[in-house]
Design goal:
Layout (H helix, E strand, L loop, with lengths): L5 E9 L4 H20 L2 E8 L8 E8 L2 H11 L8 H10 L3 E11 L6 H7 L5 E8 L5 H18 L3 E8 L6 E8 L2 H12 L6 H8 L3 E9 L4 H4 L15
Antiparallel strand pairs: 1-3, 1-4, 2-3, 2-8, 4-6, 5-7, 5-8, 6-7
Length: about 250
């Protein structure tokens, strides 16, 4: 079935050595609340591999039913003192000592991009994930995503990569895509990067990307312990533990 959800994509800046605490606080302490009060599912929580991007950093991806569901989510949240509902105020109070801020995007999936329930049913897993922010000329992101569907998925499959999600960023000039790939092991990642970087025998997909005048910024991610792509389920209240254990 075509994916009609809407997603919130977040880059979170972590303070000091608090990444493990933040990921636990996000998954066990917030995800059950978000699911119950906002009908919001956790798609993924990942730690950025610091040598490939900003550090320390966490990436979150939330799945919402559709645009009306997102509007209801915002309506629920933006009430009360400080434009936060009570549950968020309580969670935020603990999170404030773990993170300094971040950058969020609203992203819209391609129809063929699987939901988290579909991934969990299929058993999608990655020892590591490639996270790509792709910038295209203004208004041209759909050309890139169409090419990704028509030839890119097969090209990546030949390298051992499985598509996790493909999205365009909303509320801007249709010039940015977010693409996430699951990679089964580190040796597969190394072989993939060698293929991408080989100018002597240029990989056809890299040529396609360059022909579309698209720029790819790729970082690596690893699952949080309670991320649904690792556990095969949504985080539960029973997963909660004192943060000072982390």
């Amino acid at each position: 079935m075509a994916n009609q959800h809407v997603y919130i994509h977040e880059f979170i800046d972590i303070i000091g050595h608090n990444r493990a605490r933040y990921m636990q606080h996000m998954t066990a302490n917030w995800c059950p609340v978000a699911r119950e009060e906002r009908n919001q599912l956790c798609f993924g929580v990942w730690a950025t591999v610091g040598a490939t991007g900003r550090w320390p950093e966490v990436v979150n991806l939330w799945e919402i039913s559709d645009w009306d569901g997102l509007a209801a989510d915002f309506e629920h949240e933006l009430v009360g003192s400080g434009a936060q509902d009570r549950s968020l105020v309580e969670w935020w109070a603990a999170a404030a000592s773990l993170r300094r801020g971040g950058i969020d995007r609203i992203v819209v999936p391609e129809p063929w991009s699987p939901s988290i329930d579909e991934h969990n049913a299929a058993g999608t897993r990655g020892a590591v994930y490639a996270h790509e922010v792709v910038t295209t000329p203004l208004g041209e992101v759909q050309r890139y995503l169409d090419a990704l569907h028509d030839t890119g998925i097969g090209a990546h499959a030949e390298q051992g990569l499985v598509p996790v999600g493909a999205f365009h960023t909303a509320m801007r000039a249709r010039d940015e895509a977010i693409v996430i790939w699951a990679i089964p092991d580190w040796s597969t990642w190394a072989a993939f990067e060698r293929t991408w970087d080989d100018d002597r025998h240029r990989w056809p997909w890299r040529g396609t990307v360059q022909g579309l005048e698209a720029r790819t910024e790729r970082t690596l991610l690893v699952d949080a312990p309670l991320s649904p792509l690792r556990t095969g389920r949504q985080p539960q209240v029973e997963d909660r533990r004192p943060l000072d254990e982390f």
